[in-house]
């Protein structure tokens, strides 16, 4: 099987950290590089966090590039009420030896796509600022993108406003640019990520894996599940971002439906909403494959298997 070549653009972030682990350790994924945006925390912190995770799992050869320090139009909105002061509160990380690259994340995305043969998948698990900026900076790269897989949006309601999901809302203009790029998009939204709740028995099950990666998972979930309970009342934290990588590893875990999706950038109350025409009311061309359901047990089996790969 050909390895899937991907760029992971993220804002770690507890669930981003688990997405990084999956992408870095799965043998069928070729993680070309990680770019980080401002989102769950500042870009100064998210770049350090990406390095911390890679160092923990011994994947220090994967480069980390700092991206845009703020959204294109909006002011930054840091989600420290979920992810804490560091953006990755919970685990006690050793002193940092893995360092981020000097070059900018947008340059890395442009260069990698330019030099590719149209086989690179861009996965975004944070605000879509870096990818949108890359598209505007070098429009020629757009046709080189094989697919965009985005954790973001929701057919149903949001998690930062009644209408909007955090990653889309945090930089809706960026999401608008990406969703109107004409490239194939898989939207992994809250409709499925809210089904993979990391209950205490799941944390215990992952602890039994007994590797360094599973220890990191457990330490991360300690903080994440606590704040998810405080803010949303969930008895287990929704493991949003790893669903994107799980989808690339085992596509059959996710059921998708093609539909027209537009990003709301003008609405006062609905800014950042993903308008998903599930019933094809509008009769407009489909613009995205939207994740509608997930095999929950299959997802946890996958997480368990991947955590067992590295010590
Ligand atoms: C998204 O928001 C962030 O806080 C998480 O990391 C995830 O990417 C979920 O809405
Ligand atoms: Ca994220």
Mean pLDDT: 97
Counted by DSSP, the helix tally is 12
Cα distance, first to last residue?
25 Å
Helix proportion range? 25-40%
Low-confidence stretches: none
Largest sheet: 8 strands, mixed
Helix/sheet category: alpha/beta
H/E order of the elements?
Answer: EHEHEHHEHEHHEHEHHEHEEEEH
Based on the structure, what is the oligomeric state of the protein chains? single chain
Strand content: 15-25%
Number of strands: 12
- How are the strands ordered across the major sheet? 3-2-1-4-5-6-12-9
Task: Please compute the radius of gyration using only Cα atoms.
Answer: 18 Å
List all distinct small molecules, including ions and cofactors, that are bound in this structure: beta-D-ribofuranose, calcium ion
Shape: globular
Structural summary, described in words:
- This protein has helices spanning 14-25, 43-56, 80-83, 105-114, 129-137, 166-170, 172-179, 190-193, 200-207, 212-232, 242-249, 296-307, and strands spanning 4-10, 29-36, 64-66, 120-124, 145-151, 185-188, 197-198, 237-238, 254-259, 261-263, 274-276, 288-294.
- The relative contact order is 0.16.
- The protein has 311 residues and is an alpha/beta fold.
- The two termini are 25 Å apart.
- Calcium ion is lined by residues 10-11, 13, 15-16, 39-40, 125-126, 241.
């Amino acid at each position: 099987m050909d390895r899937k070549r991907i760029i992971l653009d993220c804002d770690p972030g507890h669930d981003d950290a688990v997405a990084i682990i999956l992408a870095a350790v799965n043998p069928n994924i070729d993680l070309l590089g990680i770019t980080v945006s401002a989102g769950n925390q500042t870009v100064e912190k998210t770049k350090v966090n990406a390095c911390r995770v890679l160092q923990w799992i011994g994947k220090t050869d994967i480069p980390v590039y700092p991206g845009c320090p703020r959204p294109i139009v909006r002011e930054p909105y840091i989600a420290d009420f979920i992810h804490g002061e560091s953006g990755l509160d919970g685990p006690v990380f050793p002193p940092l030896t893995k360092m981020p690259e000097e070059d900018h994340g947008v340059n890395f995305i442009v260069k990698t796509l330019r030099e590719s043969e149209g086989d690179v998948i861009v996965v975004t698990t944070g605000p879509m600022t870096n990818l949108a900026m890359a598209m505007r900076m070098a429009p020629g790269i757009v046709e080189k993108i094989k697919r965009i897989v985005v954790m973001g949006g929701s057919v149903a309601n949001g998690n930062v406003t009644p209408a909007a999901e955090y990653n889309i809302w945090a930089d809706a203009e960026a999401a608008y640019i990406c969703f109107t790029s004409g490239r194939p998009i898989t939207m992994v939204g809250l409709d499925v990520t809210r089904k993979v709740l990391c209950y205490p028995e799941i944390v215990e099950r992952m602890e039994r894996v007994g590797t360094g990666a599973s220890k990191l998972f457990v330490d991360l979930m300690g903080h994440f599940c606590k704040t998810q309970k405080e803010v949303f009342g969930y008895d287990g934290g929704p493991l949003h971002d790893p669903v994107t990588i799980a989808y690339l590893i085992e596509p059959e875990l996710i059921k998708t439906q093609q539909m027209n999706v537009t990003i709301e950038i003008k609405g006062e109350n609905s800014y950042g909403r993903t308008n998903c025409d599930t019933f094809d009311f509008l009769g407009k061309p489909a613009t995205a494959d939207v994740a509608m359901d997930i095999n929950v047990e299959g997802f946890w089996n996958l997480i368990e298997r991947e955590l067992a790969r590295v010590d």
